[in-house]
Model the fold of this input.
Amino acid sequence: MNKIDRNLRHAESHDIDDNFGDATVPDSFRGSINTLSSKAYTETSHSSNVWNMFFRNGGNVHYSNKDSVWKSKNSIDKVIANDDGTKLGDDMDEMMSCGEWMRWNVVCMVKEICHYVKTALSRPVIALMALGVFIMLFLAGFAIVQTTKSNYEDDLRFQAMCTAAETGQWFNDMFKRALLPLYSIQQAVIYSDYFRDLPQKIGKAGEPGSAPTLEESPNPKYSYRNVTNICDDAEMQAKFHEMVESVNHDTEMDGLIVHYRLAPHAVFCLVDPLVNDEDFGEGQSMDFSGAIGRDLLHSNAFWDKTVRATINSPGNEVDIFGPIEIAKGDDVIMPELYCGHLKVNMPGYELEIDGDVYESWGFVMHFIHWSKLKEQSKIYDSFSKRGVEFNLTRTDVIVDPATGEETAKVEIIAQSDNAHLLDDSNSEVVPIKTPNGIWMNRVGYPEGYTPSWYGPAIIGVAFSSFIIALMFAVILVEKQLHTKLLYKMMPSTAIKKLNRGKTVVEKYNLVTIFFSDIVGFTSMAGEMQPIQVMKMLNDLYVEFDKIVERHNLYKVETIGDAYMVVGGAPDRCTGPEAAAKVARFALEATKFVKNYRTSTGTRIYIRVGLHSGPVMAGVVGQAMPRYCLFGDTVNYASRMESTSVKMMIQCSDMTRRLLIDAPNHMFHCEERRGEDDEVGVMVKGKGLVHTWWIKGCEERSNATYDLDLENLGVNSQLSSRNSLSMVEEEDDRENNPVYS
Done:
């Protein structure tokens, strides 16, 4: 493209030439990119526009020595409210108070939040994506918390069950050790001659030669036999005491096994110690002499059952009963005591129970100090240290001798203070196999297995997910605002190519360009405060921007008081359609300006020029790139504006021809003539050019119409036809070429 002189249009001067490399553009393109960015930001959000914040009430700005308009909110309010152009007093220099500063920041923050919310609501996909992020994060966090909670609960259960199992194993081992003395005494009875003849001496109750039954029983609950001179043999008692002491010492059961008994023919004969004053605490003693001579088979159902269970037990097992209480009168001496019974089966001895005869010498018996055994086990400390409550029980089956009905009775072996708070929801039952049968230890936590941090953790996950989702939404809003701002600065097709690292060059064979300028802008600006000038341009061009959107045109840029619009690019359409859109925009913009008044009541006037033809479009530069139009059509349109008159729309002959072909509207145009009735206007670089005034338009009644060529003139007909023919031929050769 050849180098062409261009007009530098400033205020009312239009005759200064300038060169722009190898491409020709109007001088309105030469403004700073910052102006373009400010314009785009103004379009993006009027509510957050800094000018709107300043101009809510309109007015002047008086700059202080530091050239700052941000010193005081009160001062700013006064600046905004001052419309008479007078200067403000020294209160401009007053610094904003802390309260005013905070209120100012709160107002700004609220406005920004409202702006973000408005943007988010305008794009429901942002809310949906943020909601999706919140749901995914919450579900992921919830799953992690649930997994951690489950592991925590499993650890608590495992800890409680392990403690129960360890304690149960200890009791099992200790019970087995406590039963060893019984086996030792059993073997001593079997292989010692000291105790062999005791069953024969005692004999069966009521038979001749047997120990007689006492008519006056020392204890009415039991039946007694007279075993004098049988069980009170001093040598035999000494031998039994020696045996007991030796067994206790060898098995390390001193203090745990507190009493032993021999019951030949199921009659208590030998007891040791006779009086125990060492194992029941200070000042406590127990006299067991009252048990000597007690006939267990003729006493009560309990002992009858106990003897039967002992003698009839399979194998060589110990029958254990307890825990029981040992009392002296109303005073409980031993609240927890276990009894162990082991049969002594020897050939040649018979024991009849309810008509059933058993080959048995009798049995041996001992008492286990259960309280001391628990104390040695440290069962309470073990569970308390882990914060575990427990309830150790054994279930016995009680048979009613009269009816034979069986009743389950739960015996509490040991329990913690808060064992009553345990149930199926907060505890586990651990079975423990012992010589005393199966013990059941319920272990758990009264407050349950759910950790105390579970609720706060869920709240924390929800809050964190909300914050992250909110941040994600803010990022999306920021991206939306950025994208919206970017799309207002240049076309979307150009942005996509730039994002891919391509150079944007596009050719448009037929577009229509609009230029406008404010008449007398220089003198007007000199009489106004700068902030009033900016407010006037902002109000004017914001309304122009709305009109551009309504007519689906593309705003190229504003430079100072100049405004440039193009139709047919970057959104392609036919030449007549583009010309019609731009012409209708020009009419509506001119109409708005007629009714517009500045804040001081001043009326403004604009010149408008239109021209149609081919252009090249592309993005210039890499730092702060701009979408620009190049070609003689741009210069021609600028000349149409600069040679126009105030509040008039001047168009070239080419644009006039396209308006005649407009499909949906009929435009009323008037041929431009000079004072000497000369047709056209002198345009620098073009000579005498045939131009037209666009007066108005109306919708066509139907799509079919006849062209009225009478008013066009011979020159305009040839020019229009030749230009249109060239455009149509070019369209056929190359449709939408893009170089990258």
Observations:
- The mean pLDDT is 79.
- The first helix runs from residue 33 to 44.
- The first strand starts at residue 6 and ends at 7.
